[in-house]
Amino acid sequence: xxxxxxxxxxxxxxxxxxxxxxxxxxxxxxxxxxxxxxxxxxxxxxxxxxxxxxxxxxxxxxxxxxxxxxxxxxxxxxxxxxxxxxxxxxxxxxxxxxxxxxxxxxxxxxxxxxxxxxxxxxxxxxxxxxxxxxxxxxxxxxxxxxxxxxxxxxxxxxxxxxxxxxxxxxxxxxxxxxxxxxxxxxxxxxxxxxxxxxxxxxxxxxxxxxxxxxxxxxxxxxxxxxxxxxxxxxxxxxxxxxxxxxxxxxxxxxxxxxxxxxxxxxxxxxxxxxxxxxxxxxxxxxxxxxxxxxxxxxxxxxxxxxxxxxxxxxxxxxxxxxxxxxxxxxxxxxxxxxxxxxxxxxxxxxxxxxxxxxxxxxxxxxxxxxxxxxxxxxxxxxxxxxxxxxxxxxxxxxxxxxxxxxxxxxxxxxxxxxxxxxxxxxxxxxxxxxxxxxxxxxxxxxxxxxxxxxxxxxxxxxxxxxxxxxxxxxxxxxxxxxxxxxxxxxxxxxxxxxxxx
Length: 501
Hints:
The protein is 40% helix and 22% strand. By secondary structure, the chain is of the alpha/beta class. The strands form 3 sheets. Strands 2, 3, 4, 5, 6, 8, 9 and 10 form an 8-stranded mixed beta sheet that branches. Strands 11, 12, 13, 14, 15, 16, 17 and 18 form an 8-stranded mixed beta sheet that branches. Residues 179-218, 408-433 and 482-501 have low confidence and may be disordered.
């Protein structure tokens, strides 16, 4: 065998071994999730942001380390803006007033806040006893801050609290010079020791510097680490957490990456009569889904009419299946009649859509869902459709999605790489989303007689196909409350929803 052939075969063998090893190595992550939250049994819509737990130090050459208060204020301002944006893009309603009300001298809940900080630090130690864990283990963590969370959630009428901890440093010019000199001296001493050892039995060369001062001459001039956690306001359980660092990137980019895996909101609103089974709903008429699908191009966006038609048909079938697995009778006659076959009913449908939009706006006055004892209605316009369908209730679905073209996806990938490079120079603009597609869905159950909204949920924005998003949005949809149909939804029945929200 020729030597070149032998080396080629050996290289192929090494490559095959590396591929085999990589396929056997589990994917690792720094994300931690509660089993309930990962499985969508725990729903969160309103999130109260707590004051940022933030420290930034200036490392000096001969005067010790000191807190850089000016830098902390800059970082706090930037993080606060980005935290709100990251939560809102996932469908959460964000409350930030606790940032000003909590902590510090003369403010509310100072002692309680310190208790919460201590409790979370302990929970964090439990969660991050190991830096990274296999992905399949990341949804099995149970940690809690206990009752310390409840007072803040109650004060802000929130489902959950967001905790953000940041630690960073900058080195002074003198400190950097010292490290460079020590690094160079250490390298030189080690080199001389090695040469002396080889030429004279190791007796003539000086001993290397202790390992504690053998610093890299290119040591980082700064660094940052960030940790984000979502805590259940009632139980104090840590629902989700992620830590990112230590990095020289801008804080905005670090936060963007740390929160990339935070699931979108999935908290439904339910009419009190439906929750207590006083309002019986057994048959539901399906109204045509409102669908908007946008093709995001390199320089412009356009509606994808063909894809919209496909999504309407797909969503109609998926809604029917989701209702039937919960014990309802799904009536689909309105889908055809409102598709141009019944001009009078189609004209009435425009009135219905306007009334529905107003009702949803009323449901979320000031961006916060109204109390469960309140009632919101589309009015008597609903009766025409429930009568036509022979149904107790009506279901409304609105979907908005996007899909990037190949050139736009390439552009985003390139821009993301450029932004990542720029952030090394302390630029802090978050990298754009690299997701090629995604969607958001709103599902609402309306009483056919009174027009009152009985149940509503909005889910998204999620990088998944429309059917999967719908299944997740309807996770909390109640089962039919007729005596013969009322039953809990089994795990197998909800298998259309993924294990993470």
